[in-house]
Amino acid sequence: NAGVMQNPRHLVRRRGQEARLRCSPMKGHSHVYWYRQLPEEGLKFMVYLQKENIIDESGMPKERFSAEFPKEGPSILRIQQVVRGDSAAYFCASSPGQGGHEQYFGPGTRLTVT
Amino acid sequence: RKEVEQDPGPFNVPEGATVAFNCTYSNSASQSFFWYRQDCRKEPKLLMSVYSSGNEDGRFTAQLNRASQYISLLIRDSKLSDSATYLCVGLLSGGYNKLIFGAGTRLAVHP
Question: How far is B95 from chain A (nearest CA, A)?
């Protein structure tokens, strides 16, 4: 039973480019969460999605960031026109359903903006 | 004020030592609490849930005091492999399912 999968594991983008981060939840999990960890800081919640629905995006920056979890395929976190301050580790987690108290994390994508 | 606050450490202890981490939270809407462990540049992994009655898992004991909004983790007989960052985490429920992470406490166990 594969765990949460994220790709790419490492992503380098120049300022102004777009970054697309992918997350495939654990089999049987329909809830996905994205968190961001800046260097030397704790993880910060960004967005909570179910299939085809954004449930809570209170942690998402108002501009340039978007997330989706389509009916088929992985969840995507998209960052447009990246800036150096977007450099961070982006972790995806999934849970089987309501409650969300057991969230299983993927290995993360380390985004570096040059 | 941060919603979940932890002493960042580092805690440097010899093998076999007992070490205690503390954590306070400010959001009373957090209904559940956990300790996660994060190794350098890796994903956080659930170590244990925390209950008011206290719970123990081998060498690890966790305790929650809702009146004081205080959470603790005790590690007995420390091993080299316990070296990691320990994250105190609250879950905002009521449909939010949002984990609120503390910044973490670093533990280094030396021979």
Answer: 7
pLDDT at B104: 93
Q: Quick check: A1 pLDDT over 70? A: no
Of B42, B46, B96, the CB nearest to A102: B46
H/E/C letters for each residue in chain A? CCCCEEECCEEEECCCCCEEEEEECCCCCCEEEEEEECCCCCEEEEEEEECCEEEECCCCCCCCEEEECCCCCCEEEEECCCCHHHCEEEEEEEECCCCCCCCEECCCEEEEEC
Residue A97 CA to residue A29 CA, distance in Å, equals 7
What is the sign, positive or negative, of the torsion defined by CA atoms of B101, A7, A59, A69? negative
Residues B19-48 pLDDT 10s: 999 999 987 766 789 999 999 889 999 999
Q: Which pair of structure tokens corresponds to residue B57?
A: 């898992």
Length of chain A: 114
Q: What is the pLDDT of residue A100?
A: 54
